[in-house]
Amino acid sequence: MVFKKRNSECVVYISPYNIEPNPYQPRKSFDYDSLYSLSESIKNNGVLQPLIVRDTGNGSYELISGERRLRASKIAGLTLVPCLIKNVEIKDSALFAILENLQRQNLNFFEEAESLCRLISDFGFTQSQIGKKLGKSQSSLSNKMRLLKIPSVLRKRIIDNSLTERHARALIKIDDIDTMDKTLDYIINNNLNVSQTEKYIDSVLNSYTHVSNKPKLRMLTDVRLFINSITQAVNTMTDAGINADLNRKEDENSIIFTVTIEKSKKVYNSVS
Question: Is 20 noted as a catalytic residue in this protein?
């Protein structure tokens, strides 16, 4: 371990392999190309900003902030990295890591929401306390955390397809997960912008009817599919040499089909 003064602070040089990642690091994905570029810069110029760590004893340390620099330093093959040691508890370490990423806007909006929830669930922070630290209102924090209503598998698709937080906010209006999944497919496949997404989701929600207080999606296209299936079935029988006939009657409330099939010189009638 090497010590070096930087202004009034003591910079300590530590092996990057003695530094464990912060378990509360909110950032989940790191772009390899970006890390490789940073590692090349570190090879040429060194680590310009020290990592911040806390001493966990027995020559081991836990990272508080600077995970990109730590990863890039390992890629660059550094044996020592500059660090500032902070005497903080795990609760403060987690808070520092999360707040630093939030303030630097290094997180996507789902990672932000997950981080806020962890501060509340794991450490008992209130939305008011977090809001004061971040300079955000409680309502904005609540809206952010509501994004977690979207299942994790759908969150990944939203991020992978570069959809925005406003796309996600529109999606959480849908309670049914299957419908949310199909709606997301439509948004991605048709490359809908935010305004188009909001209008499409409104049309999806307007197509709901309520039967026994359970939402059921009513789609005219499905009815047409059933009608086409009946017609196709009769045509298939006719093509196979079976004497079959289809009659259709329609009034304001219903569509009535009468299918007549001749078999072994006998006639069977079916009405549906």
Answer: no
Please answer whether residues 201 and 174 qualify as being in contact, where contact means their C-beta atoms are separated by less than 8 angstroms.
yes
Structure letter (DSSP) for residue 205:
H
193 secondary structure, DSSP code: -
Question: In angstroms, how far is the first alpha carbon of the chain from the final one?
Answer: 85
Contact (Cβ atoms closer than 8 angstroms) between residue 151 and residue 168: no
User: One of 20, 40, 62, 67 is an active-site residue; which one?
Assistant: 67
Of 130, 124, 129, 64, nearest in space to 93 by CA: 64
Q: Which CA distances in Å does 247 have to 231, 236, 238, 258?
A: 10, 16, 14, 5
DSSP 22: P
Q: Which of 12-26, 143-157, 232-246 has the lowest mean pLDDT?
A: 232-246
Between helix 109-123 and helix 138-145 the angle, nearest 10°, is 110
Amino acid at 137: S
Higher-scoring residue by pLDDT: 226, 238: 238
C-alpha span between 22 and 52 (Å, rounded): 11
- Are 188 and 157 a contacting pair, CB within 8 Å? yes
Mean pLDDT across the chain: 80
* Per-residue model confidence (pLDDT) at position 150: 95
CA 16 – CA 62 distance, rounded (Å): 10
Query: Contact at 8 Å (CB) between 207 and 214?
Result: no
Secondary structure (3-state) at 214: strand
DSSP secondary structure letter of residue 105: T
Beta-carbon count within 10 A of 22 CB: 24
Q: Tokens 């003695």: give the residue.
A: 18
pLDDT digits (tens, 9 = 90+) for 89-107: 777 777 777 777 666 656 7
